User: What shape does this take?
Amino acid sequence: MGSVGLSGGFLLAAQRDVDFMIHGLIKYNLFGQELWITTTHVSVLIVMLVLLIFALAANRAIKHAEEVPGGFQNVVELIVEMLDKMVSGSMGKYAGKFVNYISTLFLFIFISNISGLFGLRPPTADYGVTLPLGLMTFAIIQYNNIKYNKFGAFTGLFQPLPFLFPINLIGEIAVPFSLSLRLFGNILSGTVMMSLIYQLLSKFAVGWPGILHIYFDVFSGAIQTYVFCMLTMVFTVDKMPGED
Assistant: This one.
């Protein structure tokens, strides 16, 4: 009887409306197709505005830099130094060419990942956001592959043995999907977990979910940001000539 009652409780809980923060806000028609502006679009816009405001403020702080830096100038210099060190440590002599892209990618993904702390639906919990990030990285990887290896970018698919061509080709094509699905899956799982906790355990969700937010939004968000950027750098450098 106890197990039946417990199962019945879960079934009743499962029948409740669990809000995963996916909502259509504005509907419009384009070429006969019904499209929606969703909470994800709004979250992406807010993240972009936050980054733009931060960039303008950082630019002003650096232009009027003081010999003894204040609080905000210290934060800006710390972020720039951290990102420069991360990129140079992974990309060596090529770091200067990619530091702007990797830094922008890092900040966008990280702010997106932790936006759940501020009541937003994390944009990276939507595959429509992470897939373009993976495709942009894939384009950069293949561009540098062709730029530095010329025709070898194609003949390399037949190495070390010609019959491995299908496997090598699949390995190349899988890169953007691997990157995007890893980021999407980890952030979505955290969003789903927190939504379930707040909806199904609403009477008991007082205070302690903050600990889970620290893990799912901050810790896991930072880890996934670092993994995405690190793999981007590793895949890109792998297609370029080694250090002299």
